[in-house]
Amino acid sequence: MGERRAGRTLADLVAAVERAAAGQLSATVVGDGGCLIEAVAPLESAGPTDLSFLANLRYRRTAASTRAGAVVLSAADYETVKPAANAVLCAQPYAWFALAAQILNPASPLEPQVADGAWIDPGARLGHNCRVDAGAVIEADAQVGAGCWIGAGCYVGRGARVGDGSRLHPGARVLADCVLGARAIVHGGAVIGADGFGFAPLAGRWVKIPQLGRVIVGDDVEIGANTTIDRGTMGDTVIEDGVKIDNQVQIAHNCRIGAHTVIAGCVGIAGSAVIGRRCQLGGAAMIHGHITICDDVIVSGGTLISRSINEPGFYSGVFPFMPNREWERNAALVRHLRELRERLRRLEARHARDEEKP
Amino acid sequence: MGERRAGRTLADLVAAVERAAAGQLSATVVGDGGCLIEAVAPLESAGPTDLSFLANLRYRRTAASTRAGAVVLSAADYETVKPAANAVLCAQPYAWFALAAQILNPASPLEPQVADGAWIDPGARLGHNCRVDAGAVIEADAQVGAGCWIGAGCYVGRGARVGDGSRLHPGARVLADCVLGARAIVHGGAVIGADGFGFAPLAGRWVKIPQLGRVIVGDDVEIGANTTIDRGTMGDTVIEDGVKIDNQVQIAHNCRIGAHTVIAGCVGIAGSAVIGRRCQLGGAAMIHGHITICDDVIVSGGTLISRSINEPGFYSGVFPFMPNREWERNAALVRHLRELRERLRRLEARHARDEEKP
Amino acid sequence: MGERRAGRTLADLVAAVERAAAGQLSATVVGDGGCLIEAVAPLESAGPTDLSFLANLRYRRTAASTRAGAVVLSAADYETVKPAANAVLCAQPYAWFALAAQILNPASPLEPQVADGAWIDPGARLGHNCRVDAGAVIEADAQVGAGCWIGAGCYVGRGARVGDGSRLHPGARVLADCVLGARAIVHGGAVIGADGFGFAPLAGRWVKIPQLGRVIVGDDVEIGANTTIDRGTMGDTVIEDGVKIDNQVQIAHNCRIGAHTVIAGCVGIAGSAVIGRRCQLGGAAMIHGHITICDDVIVSGGTLISRSINEPGFYSGVFPFMPNREWERNAALVRHLRELRERLRRLEARHARDEEKP
């Protein structure tokens, strides 16, 4: 999106990554630190001014022969691969590469301006250096922090707050009274703060329970395209700091998502579920309502979690796929597992009886 | 969304709920009917002007010690819990609470106006007392009933109809010729009336089948954020009265959803499926196309319904989750169930043969 | 959407379909070729100027007694059904019907115009005969081909390209630098080109990996409402010619979808997956990242594909649904399959031992 490239020498880049990581990512250059690096590229297509990285020894051959200007990898992998290219040795090559890619591709600076076609209520407050594009609507009493981008067609509701340095991509919506922390990234079509799904049965009909809470989002949260996070019924739905949420995710009312948890695409989380910190929910995983998942739980894609998890670990529950004919035969037997066990028990009992015979 | 609070005494509230429920929800106050109630709140955080409720005896301790001004609960639970707070005894406390919450938090009255940045075709017809916000577009021949709210960035297509008292939240879209009944609530990002997914194969390509029908939605229907309901191919997709649909639901062309059915988030319903009345589809349930589900069916979250259901009841079909290592071992055996049964049969046969021996 | 009906005789229609199919769909009229056909309709509701079709002999009775002006069906089915109506005999009745429906319901011609409320950057280029509706935003350096419709509230980002004859329905978004081929149809709420979901762990936090690639979409692609297709990290996400994608589908960064593949609603495809040509992914199927699926693979709805598929064929993996009580009993046993097999083995071993006895 109009990113500017900022070439620099490999040695400069190593220093810049170390600064960006606050000293946590020191690295050593093997080869020519004066090599000019302008961009990042995959091993197989990288050229002499590109930086690439090796995450997995499966790709060792490609790494050995890459035409990249430099390759980031671990010292151990370096010994195995011995790439012809310059190398950056680092204990965490993926994180190093991520920061280097950020440095080489800085987000384009916002040109602060409010477009002609943006509709901002006079009672809204906008920080300095914001950019608001055409078709965006900001309602009364909304507060948008400094240095924010409110893209085309975005919506910031009455009384909502958007933290400093946040970026709402075209078509993102933050509804009334919801709160986004600093440096939020919200992608297009996301809806933050729609009504939770709450109805009480009465004489064959459903009575709507007013959804009176908010969505409160911490700092450094990213929310994917067309993801929905509902406001709380009473009390709030809470997304803690550093949570990363992919596209098409549904988070229901009164959930709490712990800090630095990542949620892949198409996940659904039902009402009042509490997810711990540093969890990883695989794509299309489903979480029942009113359960608690402790910190450091990993859930496989497509798995339905139907009760609380109190032990950190890796959980799965997916029917294995197979050729359809084979599936038809095996799936039919899933309906008869109890009967199979019963037959097995009877055989075991006969055996036991037989062995008692003289 | 700018809700006004409307405090009243507990006795007044009891009378107001009974009126709202047309006499179906009579209740008795134990304690001080003159107690002022201003808001609803959960048992644990409620204060002296808050109304709370007890739905489940799991929370009996919290209910016993709540600082709420009043608690709604059943007479039986009252005898068990004996809360210190004032109590409202009622046979259906959840429904009573829902109506009380509505009365205490009335939707803010619309200020009828058409925003400067709204684009309404001169050939569209708008009822009285409507509010149309900036960025909304209403096309020619569309009819919007009285007292409707068409939020920012909404779209009402050519020839579409929106019933009296409906609320389209920011970014909801009702496409050409589709019909919403009275008091519809459509949340942001919902798309009512996109083309159904219909293609015929021809020589290795797909020929589009024009999608000529409409979506017809009854009265008192709520449709969640980013939900999609496709128009019929020939004939219409029909959502009957009182249906409640959560976020991220997909309803394909030519489906019919029976009155007062509720559909939780992330459900997918394939083309021409017919769902009965008063059904409940759990989150991420999937319904095959061209099947029929009778009235009063409950489907567990995550369950795929692959053929018609003719008996009311509760249906499930989800692989149980477990620690990943355990899952890997068990899931591998699912592929061999037929073989297991075969081995069991052979053992049984040997047994039978052995027992025939003299 | 304001489609015009274009009545013609049955004989004319047969000729027009043959032309449209470039000679691939010849058909024979049995009965009155002069019969006027104005519309398509289902067998059961069709009237004397309607064309209907028989796809499945299940509906033979309806076909026999239909009041349609003409019925399309295969010669073999004609012999079985002997409908009273005029008949069009054709080897591929479904494709024939699809083209006939297109001819009878041509998309309304665009009235080329740029609405007052559309915001087009002076640096964008628009082909001739385009229609841009209110609330649409087209950014600098975007190129929109000839004869395109950019609906209300659509967004075409900086440097994006939209091919000739494409139709972006209200609220569709094509982000910066992405490319749509000719005759694309993109439905409302679709987001083409949001950031892929890429983060590297560093000291308990997640570092964003800049998403620098694009989405490249071939010709004749249809993309459903609220579907999301993410841009590549490095390199592009590619959707080849003729792919048809339903609503609420999520396609992650760096995927490649082969030509003429169809993807039903709610499917999720994780990063860097490569799907072959002419595949069919059923609704809510899930595809793991970094795997390859060869050409001509069909995946059942709801199936999770967790590793590469190298053989064309039909694959499934769904837990069968059953009454909840029955499911609870059987699902519990799924957790003990290994134990069941172990018990079976022990029995088999005893048997073998017993038989060795004299």
DSSP strand tally of chain A: 40
CATH architecture of the largest domain in chain A: 3 Solenoid
CATH class of the largest domain in chain A: Mainly Beta
Average pLDDT figure of chain A = 95
Largest beta sheet: strand ordering of chain A: 8-11-14-17-20-25-28-31-34-37-39
The portion of residues forming beta strands of chain A comes to 25-35%
How many domains in all of chain A? 3
- Kindly report the CATH topology of the largest domain in chain A: UDP N-Acetylglucosamine Acyltransferase, domain 1
- Which chain pair shows the most residues in contact? A-B, 75 and 77 residues
Helix-and-strand structural type of chain A: alpha/beta
User: Span from first to last CA of chain A?
Assistant: 86 Å
For the record, what is the CATH homologous superfamily label of the largest domain in chain A?
Hexapeptide repeat proteins
Radius of gyration of chain A: 27 Å
Helix content of chain A: 10-25%
Q: If helices are DSSP runs of H or I spanning 4 or more residues, what is the number of helices of chain A?
A: 6
Largest sheet of chain A: 11 strands, parallel
* Uncertain stretches of 5 or more adjacent residues of chain A: none
Written description of the protein model:
The structure is a homotrimer of 358-residue chains. Chain A is an alpha/beta fold and 358 residues long. Chain A folds into 3 domains: 8-104, 3-Layer(aba) Sandwich (Udp-n-acetylmuramoylalanyl-d-glutamate--2,6- Diaminopimelate Ligase, Chain: A, domain 1), CATH 3.40.1390.10; 113-315, Hexapeptide repeat proteins (UDP N-Acetylglucosamine Acyltransferase, domain 1, 3 Solenoid); 324-356. The first copy, chain A, has an 11-stranded parallel sheet with strand order 8-11-14-17-20-25-28-31-34-37-39, with no helix packed on it. A 10-stranded parallel sheet of chain A has the order 9-12-15-18-21-26-29-32-35-38, with no helix packed on it. In chain A, helix 1 (10-20) packs across helix 4 (93-104). The longest helix of chain A is centred in the last third of the chain and has 20 residues, at 337-356. The model of chain A has no long low-confidence stretch (mean pLDDT 95). Chains B and C meet through strand 22, strand 23, strand 38, strand 39 and helix 5 of B and helix 4, strand 40, helix 5 and helix 6 of C. Strand 39 of chain B pairs antiparallel with strand 40 (322-323) of chain C.
